[in-house]
Amino acid sequence: MAAAAAIKSDVLSGVPEGLDALAIGEIAAAKQKEAGGKAPVLLHVVRDDRRVEALKAALSFFAPELRVMRFPAWDCVPYDRISPNSEIVAERLDTLARLAAAERKGPTIVIATVNSILQRLPSRAFLKRSLKTLAPQQRIDMTELGRLLDRAGFSRTGTVIEHGEYAVRGGIIDVFPPGRTRPLRLDFFGDTLEHIKQFDPETQRTDRAINRLTLIPTSEIALDEAAIKRFRAGYVAEFGAVTSADQLYEAVSAGQRVPGMEHWLPLMHEGLETLFDYLPGVDVSFDHLVGEAVKDRLEQIEEHFEARKTGMETQTFGAPPYKPLPPDRLYITPAEWPRLLEGRRVRQMSPF
After folding, report:
1. What's the Cα-to-Cα distance from 336 to each of 20, 37, 52, 248, 324, rounded to whole Å?
2. Contact, 284 vs 12, CB < 8 A?
3. Structural domains in the chain?
4. What is the mean pLDDT of each successive set of 10 residues along the chain, which is 352 residues long?
5. Rounded to an integer, what distance in angstroms lies between the CA atom of residue 90 and that of residue 93?
6. What is the pTM for the complete model shown?
7. Is the CB of residue 248 less than 8 Å from the CB of residue 7?
């Protein structure tokens, strides 16, 4: 890919996979020394999910002082009819919220995959607006909190077990927000939040008290009135007049979440950003052969788009026609890729 060839980078030779963690640790230490002790943030892009886990394990050995933040890609193919897994979305939003808040707890490395780095994302402004801080003795209306959770993408259930779920029983709201290893129980007396406690989803027993909770959205779409209005206007502008047979348009217009709606993410936001926007000016390093993986991924995205575009007027196995947004609305383009790396220190790992 011509765009990848235009990237200026330093090649770190003789760094096979496994030893790259040692190199990253040394880079972080050098950056911290240059900054007079200020904790640095680095971005490393790996080829795939398997490499994320391998690098994280190696970093725990070679550079245990580095805080690792993972940024996974959606686990569905481009232009899919299904939504990404809720656990994956929870981890993505937790990472983005921490980056948007500029939370620094020592030297940090963000590990992204080729698939995740190429996706456009909800903006930092959207994440900051979506955060809700709660603390014991705070006054808040339970009904309004339930509406907030609905808008933030939480699913109301009878019993909370997984990330992104909440339940209401009398004066209690159970919720499992992103960034938490266990769900939380919010105990109200009237409009006063009396206690926040962690609980075991299997036994439902509470244990540790929480002094402060920041609720992070569990969906990359806040389905409020403004988002619905933007979607309706953008959908008609992109695809023309719609009929009642358009199930996606009708469902979103009614404020209903539907499987796969994330693939129309740009229509529900004022603007999207990239992971590079969340990490302004940070050093970037790449796995060996990331350039080839970027090229392959962009070609795959284009192929999926063309396939959807070709079958746009055709029902498939009873499913309504799929109206795909152009790839540049959802993904970084080949021309953008080198521009996003300009002004950054870029390092390419090589085993040779």
Report:
1. 27, 33, 24, 30, 21
2. no
3. 2-125+273-349 (3.40.50.11180), 132-215 (3.30.2060.10)
4. 57 91 94 88 95 95 94 96 92 92 84 98 92 93 92 91 92 92 94 94 90 91 93 96 90 93 96 96 95 96 94 64 94 95 93 92
5. 5
6. 0.89
7. no
